[in-house]
Design goal:
With 377 residues, the chain is α+β, with helices and mostly antiparallel strands. It folds into two domains: 137 residues, Creatine Amidinohydrolase, Chain A, domain 1 (3-Layer(aba) Sandwich); 219 residues, Creatine Amidinohydrolase, CATH 3.90.230.10. Helices cover 36% and strands 23% of the residues. It contains eleven helices and 16 strands. It has a six-stranded mixed beta sheet with strand order 4-3-2-1-5-6, sandwiched between helices. A five-stranded antiparallel beta sheet has the order 11-10-12-15-16. Helix 1 packs antiparallel against helix 7 and helix 8 packs across helix 9. The longest helix has 24 residues.
Length: 377
């Protein structure tokens, strides 16, 4: 990496320190995001998983019987246990088998105190009922661990972020009068998925001309509207691959439009100003106010009805947020997407968005944080 972020223990070491302080024998987490966060295992359309982390750091991954082989092959845990029977859709309550298998893991079965965090409804209650240990809520510590990204997480976010820019390039190349919004949407999705080499999760605002003035889904979605000469084409794209998200927004023009291009240039300046504010100790409320005031003073008659940005990672919309009510102090290693936008009702809208890593010297654009990255945008 080109940038210097103050070093801190890896998230597993931070988890183990908490376990030691709480005198826990192990921590159990349920759900794909929790499991991915702590061991890197993620499958497209995967079944309900769980992970047991012992006080010594040993990890036991529990997955459906169908995934046991691939999970063992990938090597993300010290041990892999399969539950249920081979097959799909045969069990209307797979979480019952999952929690029973977790409860039988030796370190859980012998434990006196167990930390539990669950993304699966009632999995925490079921495992609590199945063990004799005292169960401690681990949800808050998992939440806090997610706020700061380790270097391997930055690399995964970068991979998805670069796929977002592949999508943006496809839109730039296809932005011509007569093409329909849904065609551009599909081209963007296809380009990113082919580049990824596997299925991706894809969410996109793709709005043109007056539609772009209505900001985003669900108010307007990509549809059959044909792009007209000079139209602004607003594309806000989230791609998720390997369980981590990237996020971008860009405004393209079908042909040329000096007014739209001038607005975009001003917004890029506001984006750069916000980048400089992404330092430890700053908060989303203050940064939002700066971005919002600059937009409204720069564009009389324009509207700015949305947040100024948000963190990304395992999902595309995480804490902290650049909104009036969020006073969470920023910390080195947080990753935020900053997205100033302005909208002129009935005419057009313009938005830009880049992803930054918080550092003591201000936000560093994620692609610039890694040597050898040549993604465009």
């Amino acid at each position: 990496m080109r940038i210097s972020i103050p070093r801190q223990p890896h998230r597993l070491e931070r988890l183990r320190a908490w376990m030691e302080n709480e005198k826990l024998d192990c921590t159990v987490v349920f759900g794909a995001d929790n499991v991915n966060h702590l061991c890197g295992y993620w499958r497209y359309f995967g079944g309900p998983p769980a992970l047991v982390v012992g006080r010594d750091g040993e990890r036991t991954l529990v997955v459906t019987r169908n995934e046991e082989g691939i999970a063992s092959e990938l090597g993300f845990a010290d041990e892999v246990i399969g539950f249920g029977e081979r097959g799909f859709g045969l069990d209307l309550d797979p979480v019952a088998g999952l929690t029973a298998s977790v409860a039988a893991v030796p370190v859980v079965a012998r434990a006196r105190r167990v930390g539990v965090s669950s993304e699966l409804p009632r999995a925490d209650v079921r495992v609590s009922d199945a063990v004799s240990a005292n169960v401690v809520d681990a949800g808050d510590v998992l939440y806090r661990l997610r706020l700061i990204k380790d270097e391997d997480e930055l690399e995964k976010i970068l991979a998805s972020y670069e796929l977002c820019w592949v999508s943006q390039q496809a839109i730039a190349e296809g932005a011509r009068p007569g093409i329909r919004e849904i065609e551009l949407y599909t081209a963007a999705q296809s380009a990113a998925q082919i580049a990824s080499g596997g299925p991706i999760e894809f969410v996109c605002d793709l709005l043109s001309g007056p539609n772009a003035a209505e900001v985003s889904c669900p108010v307007r979605v990509a549809g059959p509207r044909a792009v007209e000469t000079g139209d602004a084409i607003l594309a806000d794209i989230v791609v998720r691959t390997s369980g981590y998200c990237g996020d971008t927004a860009e405004t393209h023009v079908a042909g040329s439009n000096a007014e739209v291009e001038a607005v975009r240039a001003e917004l890029l300046g506001i984006l750069d100003g916000a980048r400089a504010l992404l330092v430890p100790g700053a908060n989303g409320s203050d940064i939002f106010r700066d971005v919002h005031e600059r937009i409204l003073s720069t564009f009389p008659g324009g509207e700015s009805p949305h947040h100024g940005g948000h963190a990304i990672g395992l999902t595309g919309f995480e804490d902290p947020h650049l909104i009036p009510s969020d006073v969470t102090p920023l910390e080195p290693g947080m990753v935020l997407a900053v997205e100033p936008g302005v909208y002129f009702p009935g005419r057009y809208g313009v938005r830009v968005e880049n992803v930054f890593v918080v550092t003591p010297d201000g936000g560093v654009e994620l692609r610039e944080a890694f040597r050898g990255s040549d993604a465009g945008g």
